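Example 3.2
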Amino acid sequence: MPFAGTYRIIDFTLSNAANSGFRRIDVLTQYKSYSLQRHLQLGWNIFNYELGDYLQVIPPQQRMATMWYRGTSDAIYQNIYILERERPEYVLILSGDHIYKMDYSHMLRYHVERNADLTVACIEVTREEASRFGIMQVDTDSRIISFEEKPSEPKAIPGKQESFLGSMGVYIFKTEELVRQVIADTKRESDHDFGRNIIPMMVNSRNVYVYNYSEGAVGNVYWRDIGTIEAYWEASMGLLEPDPPFVLNDHSWPLRTYQAQNPPAKIISSNKKGTSGVVINSLLSPGCIVDNARVVDSVISPRVVIEAGATVESCVIFEDTVIGRGATVRNTIIDKNVHVPPGRVIGENPKEDSRMFTVTKSGLVVIPKEQPMEE
């Protein structure tokens, strides 16, 4: 391991954790967790319990209360028995809806060197982004002196009026302090949330430090919160840039997932000049068939079939979806196992689309899994 010590990872992004040398991992899930659990079992069967490694998926156990997790800190509180049983010295807590590459051992070393009770990873964000994050102020020693969760009037970094210090939702706690804080939080009216309750309470009474993410970043300093539809779509489109900010084919930092045994992607063009079957600036996964169709600026998942005459532009399409003959789909996210009927037009008339699908303020169309559509 890169750093000696005992630690626990709870609610996290797997590729980052495993690549940093963390091999004992707990994933706390809420409801509708079947597909996540299946993904972990199939794509992350690299751990050997007999060698001291494991990955555990833990839904609410209702040991402390007969309810779902009420917030991020409550999720820890309801699983205190894990900490009591394993007795780690430190706890690393991560969020599951962020994209980045980070070596957590650097942050852990920083946390230990400062004898911190809590260390919060941060990144600079713009004024437009600041209201979506926990915003911090720090002193000259990088100690946090104020923390506001999603403020309407955020405080800028001194000397940088358009830059703000945003929390990444990556925390390292001393275990004893973490347990003390989440227990205390259950005894008061709160959102039971780290950003809204735990961190602001600790700032004035404990050793709470900020850690600059760029010091532990792997490759480009890239971090995205994809907790909204627009953010997810924008991150997906970013993968299509000539020099993408987040690199998928980095063999020194592999991103693990389950890869089914699919044949190579196939592009069919009945026109010998290749103008009837065209894929431009897109990611095309194994098992896909583009049959005399046009695909532009899109991310296409495994086993998607795009039939003759169809047009797909600026879309993210999930597995086993069929885009029917002559259909047009633009600015759309389509979940698994959807059949778009022949000739259907989606993404050009928001009023018409909103009758059946979710349409965001920016005009993105979202089609849920196995959504039926009339021919």
